[in-house]
Amino acid sequence: MNTDDASIEQVLLPDERLTDVVRHIYCIRQSAQAPTIQKQLVPNYEMMLIVNFGPAITASVADYTWVVERSAVLGPLNKLLRYTVPPDADMMVVVFTLNGFYRLVGQPIHSLRSEADADIGMRLNDETFAELWAQLKAMPSLADRLDLLNAYLLLHMAPADEDSLSILEGVVLFDNVAIDPVKVIAETRQLSTRSVQLRFQTNLGVSAKELARFLRFKKMVTELITQYPASPDWANLVFVHGYHDQSHLIRDFQQFMGLSPTEFLQQLASQEICISQPGKYY
């Protein structure tokens, strides 16, 4: 948490009844005299609901840039996100876990994105949450906003069904590079592999293959951060995380971050990049 006079950042846990669907709630406030902050967030393949009460916030992925004025939906985030926090900023971000956003809106995640958004996983300026934004805006304190937000989510969140359970229980299988998690889930649930793939697209908005590739990359990056500032043993990282060779690993850096491994380490050293911590399921 940054608690100087210019900026306050907090990561808050949701109501304990929401821990299967919400990873955390990120809040940031800046004074009117604070400088503009440039931030970067590593992809996390989760859906995020942004509720902005201050000046417009600029967000960009690759060559695409958007302006978030009030409420916005972002995800599943599959590339490095760059965003600007201006003076007088006041923002809350609900970070959903796995299929949490699907359980809130009740619509297949892959159907919510336009064809133009499919590669970058963005869907901004959504009016679905306009009423929630107005109610939160009227709250006098962060504690009141948090209470209202928890109440809203508890009221509208659908209970876990068989699809949800198969996703939650199956994601741990992705840690084992020696098995095909889709086949294991299909056999356990007595489903076809096609049905399992469809459940991932519906619940998460990505295929199981995409998720497996990302989770491998995230584990590798987490290890890099844990070992920092020691020099990475790239050969060992390639072997442990199941990459074919170092070129294979470099391609994942370019795919998810648009950076080379060396550029990533440079930004890590300058603390210019934010990485979500491991959650309840991964």
Question: Overview of this structure, please?
Answer:
Residues 182-267 form the HTH araC/xylS-type domain. This is Helix-turn-helix domain-containing protein. Helices cover 39% and strands 19% of the residues. The model has no long low-confidence stretch (mean pLDDT 85). It contains eleven helices and ten strands. The chain folds into three domains: 7-156, Jelly Rolls (Sandwich); 162-205, no CATH class; 217-269, Arc Repressor Mutant, subunit A. The two termini are 23 Å apart. It is α+β, with helices and mostly antiparallel strands and 282 residues long. α3 runs antiparallel to α4 (142-156) and α6 (181-189) crosses α7.
Number of domains: 3
Radius of gyration: 19 Å
Helix content: 25-40%
Query: Describe the biggest sheet?
Result: 6 strands, antiparallel
Number of strands: 10
CATH class of the largest domain: Mainly Beta
Please give the order of strands in the largest beta sheet.
Answer: 1-2-9-4-7-10
For this structure, the CATH topology of the largest domain is Jelly Rolls
The CATH fourth-level homologous superfamily of the largest domain? Jelly Rolls
Summarize model confidence as the mean pLDDT: 85
Distance between the termini: 23 Å
Structural category is: alpha+beta
Number of helices: 11
Low-confidence stretches: none
Oligomer: single chain
Give the DSSP E fraction (strand runs of 2 or more residues).
15-25%
Order of helices and strands: EEEEEEEEEHHEHHHHHHHHH
Protein name: Helix-turn-helix domain-containing protein
Pfam families: DUF6597, HTH_18
InterPro entries: AraC_XylS_family_regulators, DUF6597, HTH_AraC
Keywords: DNA-binding, Transcription, Transcription regulation
